[in-house]
What does this fold into?
Amino acid sequence: MTAVLLVIAVALGVMLVKKYTPGKERLTLSDYYTVASDEAIVILQGKTYEKNAKVKDDVVYLDLNTVQKFLNKELYYDTKEHVLTITTPTEIIQVYADESQYYNNKTKINLKAPILRNIDGEPYLSVEFVLPYSDFQYTYYTMPNRLLIWNEWVDLLCYDAKKDTVLRVKPDIKSEILADIPKTEKLYYVDANGEEGRKFVKVMTEDGLFGFVKKSDLTDSYYITLTSQYVEPEYAHITRDEKVVLGWHVVTNIQANQYLENMVANNDVLTVISPTWFRLTGIDGSISSLASSEYVTKAHALGLEVWGLIDNFDPQVSSYEVLSSTAARERLVNALIAEAIKYDLDGLNIDFEELTLETGVHYVQFLKELSVKCRANGIVLSVDNYVPFSYTAYYDLKTQGKVVDYVVIMAYDEYHSGSEQAGSVASIGYVEQAIKNTCELVSNEQIIMGMPFYTRLWKETTENGEVKVSSETKSMYAAETELSRYGVTAMWDETTKQYYAEYEQGGSVYKMWLEEEDSIREKLVRIADADLAGTALWRLELEKDAVWDVIRKYAK
It folds into this structure.
């Protein structure tokens, strides 16, 4: 009996020893991590990413969509011409698909392998190439191929191994061993593997291996802070110490250049004149020009800078087609810079209006590329914009403020020619909203606030119970003449901070919110209180002489 009990005890002991003795069987990493030889597992911010990287000619490539989504939103890719463009304050870097070279400001640089590859119909970009221009860090490991990327600078929960231990496939001491973990190695917490008190923790090693480690083999948890090594590029802005007072001069033909002196007669307050000289005329990026050297010489003699304006008002030319083409953008940029140098312009003023949502990203890229060449040539770059609201967000004023010199806000046409009801061209509330919204996106030192020298005479006619609204633009003098003609006295409206007039004539109701020296004063006070860079006036020749006294007092 004793012998039988002894045999049973020994058997039980063997079973217990076997049960509680850690397994020593190993699983090779290549068996556990299944990845093709020309691919690499991507581990993004401690999690296995859904799509593998590609490995060709010892270069690791990520699909461009992933790069743009997680690593660098500023990269621009031309899907038609298959060109990747990276823009810095001083460089325009162009990379063409499947070519073993790239261009930095048109200087060709040869490489051993392409930076940008078309793989299975999809663009892939070299991780190493994009790194200096992006805010992320990466390490590449082999056997198996894996790309470990950190792109968010946050606190991570970690452990240290307090003794030599192992990383297992499953939370079980019998599970296969994936790797040895030496004492003091850092391990990143993944999850607690179920309810509190379990014996294993799921972790990631510093080289991107996932598995389970016994809790008893780990130190207490602690946090580390991931820190970025990326240095954000600094954009130098060409700005003026004095307040800018810009007047737009509408030039529709070459003869109109002769009237410069008339435009600024008896006016010593303007600092900049912006003639409407250039127009986008072809989808290849070509432009027309009414520029005049004589005009620039006269303006400079009068103490004025000249910022030539380009618009996109030709209805036959698609702004989208131009701006979404790398070749067309380059031609447009080069044409503008050539004109600015040829005519000794002090600056350029970009007035591209009614852009579609899909055009926005291409427009911003155009401004980036133009800014590089303006900066290199000492040319002030200003850009005209609508008052920023959610529906104009694709003009991206935040990026504009980073790359251009002045952001000009057209704080008028609150109620425009196409409006379905009568209203002010620029009520004080509209101007205040323009200042507030813009200052949230752009430094006040770069904001020029536009004001109107015109108003609208609104006509409301009732036909079959329906009110039809139309309007016509009036200069300041023409508006006063209109009211005088019908013996109408305008009354001050505290809400809009404008004089308001209303009268009936021929069965129709006429309404007008006037722009004159008092309404302009109210706007200038808000601009001065916000300490903006200056004001812009649309347009010269529509103003009353008395307005200049107000501008002289408040604009500077």
